[in-house]
Amino acid sequence: MELSELRKHVEQDSRIDDTELDTESLRLPALHSKYLNFYHDAKLRLEKATNEYNRLYRLKWEYYSGKMDEQTLRERGWEPFDHKILRNDIGIYLNGDEDLCKRKEVIVYIKSIVDYLEEVVKEVSFRHMKIKAAIDWRKFLGGA
């Protein structure tokens, strides 16, 4: 699920009908389950993206260090890297590699979804306290 779609879900689900606080309270387990499932799906996406990045990082390290075999070069469609660079400078090439930068952007995006969902799950978890506070306030205003 994309972040914009997720935000629409949260915007819709975050509304509390203050005329039916009992119904809102009963809705909490379903909301918690919904966002916990989204959260776990995003965590799995993040793990997969991180693993893909790590595998590509190793291949790119072999490529820039001159240790990649011809068959792997052909399979990847990469031209041989003919420059001799110092071992200490490989990081500069890896950090600037277009493929690795794109993968890192995906990881950052998915991480932002995970962080967002983590906060939403926390908010849903404590929503019952807000509902209880609203009920107690109404009792107070009613003289009870």
Set out the fold topology.
Elements: H1 3-13, H2 21-65, H3 70-76, H4 90-96, H5 98-125, H6 127-141
Helix pairs in contact: 2-4, 2-5, 2-6
- Give the CA-based shape: rod-shaped
Distance between the termini: 46 Å
Annotation, overall tally of beta strands: 0
The helix fraction, in percent, is over 70%
- Our count of helices gives 6
Class by alpha and beta content: mainly alpha
Main pleated-sheet profile: none
Residue-averaged pLDDT = 94
- Quaternary class: single chain
Number of domains: 1
β-strand percent reads: under 5%
H/E series: HHHHHH
Spans with pLDDT under 50 lasting ≥5 residues?
none
C-alpha-based Rg, rounded: 25 Å
Word description of this protein:
The protein is mostly helical. The chain has one domain. It is rod-shaped and about 85 Å long. It starts with a helix and ends with a helix. The mean pLDDT is 94.
Short description:
The chain contains 6 helices and no strands. It has helices spanning 3-13, 21-65, 70-76, 90-96, 98-125, 127-141.
Jot down its keywords:
144 residues; mainly alpha; 78% helix
